[in-house]
Protein: Glutamate racemase
Amino acid sequence: MKIGVVAGTPVDTRMGSNVLREANIDNLEFPLSKNAREQTLLQYSGQEYIENATAMAIKKAIHNNCDGIFLYCNSLSSSIDYKKLENNFKIPIITPLECYTKYSKEYNTLAILSANGNSAKEIERILKDSNKFNNSILIGNMMLVESIEEKLLAEDIIDVLALDSMVEYLEKVNYNNNKVEAIILGCTHFPYIKNELKKLTKLDILDPKDDMIEMLKFKLNKIA
Structure:
């Protein structure tokens, strides 16, 4: 089995590749952009444009005998109709977005930490579709993505972006007895700071990567 990893930048593409390697899954990398800024511009170029760019990456993966696509990018997944691409190319496509239905059933009040507003909005939509009582606090922060791309130390990122203050705020929220129960890492860059976030809070930190592996194996077994 060989999987094509498609993501926004070489950094998150490599992160997705590492996730698959840890699960002993062979893979090839297909980044769409050179850096986070270029990726952001791509996402706001319109759905048709970005779907064409993603389709080209999928074609390359298929040409290289990949059996499935690991779309390791929330922002990219939120900007395209990946189910249409899955149907068109007849190849399983796994995205982080498919994990959020599970979270909405386990938690009522969630903070969504994402790269931008477009991604956060799509995650919130999925949560609401699954649980109409879900309450969400949306936080988009492209500077967090850029700092990870620049390879700043995780503890320094916490400091320069005041993420300790962000966590403190989330812990204090208490509206009509609705308290934040967990923080969703709504960007595939963000596991980079997961351990540092865990040091700051007792709130659950939700990282979809493990669920993505299970869904990938399930889809591949269905077509085997």
